[in-house]
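Sample entry (472 residues):
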Amino acid sequence: MSWNTVIGLEVHSELNTKTKCFCGCKNEFGDKPNTNCCPVCTAMPGSLPVLNRDAVERAILMGLAVGCRINNYSVFERKNYFYPDLCKAYQISQLEYPLCVGGGLEIELEDGTKKFIRLDRIHLEEDAGKLIHSRNGTMIDYNRGGVPLIEIVSKPDMNSAEEAVAYLQKLRSTLLYVGVSDCKMQEGSIRFDVNISVNRDGEPLGTRTELKNLNSFRAVLRAIKYESARQIEELEAGRKVIQETRRWDDAKGKTYSMRTKEDSQDYRYFPDPDLIPLDVTEEYIESIRKKLPKLAPERKAEYQKMGLTEQDATLITSERAYADFFEAVLKYFNEPKFVCNWITAEVFKKLNALEEDDRKISVTPQDLAKMLELYKNGEINQAGARKIFDALWEGETDPVRLVETLGLKQLNDTGALKAVLEKIIADNPKAVAELKAGNEKTMAFFVGQAMRATQGKANPKLVNDLVRELIK
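Predicted structure, serialized as tokens:
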């Protein structure tokens, strides 16, 4: 009997508010260590927290985007545990009465299979500080301590590493569409905890382990596959799986035990006496709902009305940055299908070559629009367009100037091209005979020869027409 893998995910996403969750300190990554701190977020005696209204609004906004029910009554609690990066020795979080419950996301796998992943909850809490390890010891930066984050907890609805990654990609895309987090994995503003267990058909769920703080889709994929195989190996050898928290070593491709896994009662949750329960009215919820931006499904429908195929519209809306860039280019060059074809082919090719998950488009919409206009109007050919695009990606600007400096202006002079082609035709009687006999593939030979003779400047369509005219 085969084994089943059961996966649940907890995603911690920092909110991009200006200030922290319970004090007025600046919420900004990369500042000098321990400069964005105050008596509240460093837990000085007598200091009292004050809830950030903007953090509440952003948490509700995300909840509405994924179909959650927003609780009218919500309570902040103290999650008690000791660790050096936690000044208070407790974290302000939510357990019994979270802000958002239910909801879910539909994912689609590469084979076209669709699946709905249910959410258990989204709750608001504060982040801890950051430990910085070196050979000389461990230092603590409390700048991150108190930064507001939402924890998005899924139901254990995923059964493979591929499903988990598809869910995380869709969730990250939704966070970016809603605009509540920058989701920069390299900065730790979105982090993934993976709960994994294995069982056989008809058996109860197995003992789960938790993999903490994974920060890339590749790490999630590899860690789940390894941990699932490890648990199956343990059970088939007659040993038990221990409920524990494990660390993923990306370099070695293995998980290692960190500590036994705690249950909620081990954290001794209780309502924070310094924060009153949160009363969220229906009127307030509806006022936030009106702020929801256009999400991927709505944009996808709009793009299909512009003439894009469903597949192209799906690709363009897979991330908000792509959709925003597409619309920005259209403001300068309103040819939706032409623009889409270049983005899905050339822009995505560049992005896919980047190893990091947080990939940025390195061309301005204005420059791409101008380059595409030059290409469509026949002033440059496809090869020239690609050379200009490569230069723009590397930081150059002004496609019109690049046409001149790189010598890429397309040769549209019929007389000059005829002279070039007459010699090519005279030198290649066999290719001429094949083309006359109906072998259309031979035309690529003539176009290639013309490009070589004109240093890539010939107009391929004009070459095609002239060759047919000359061999008559």
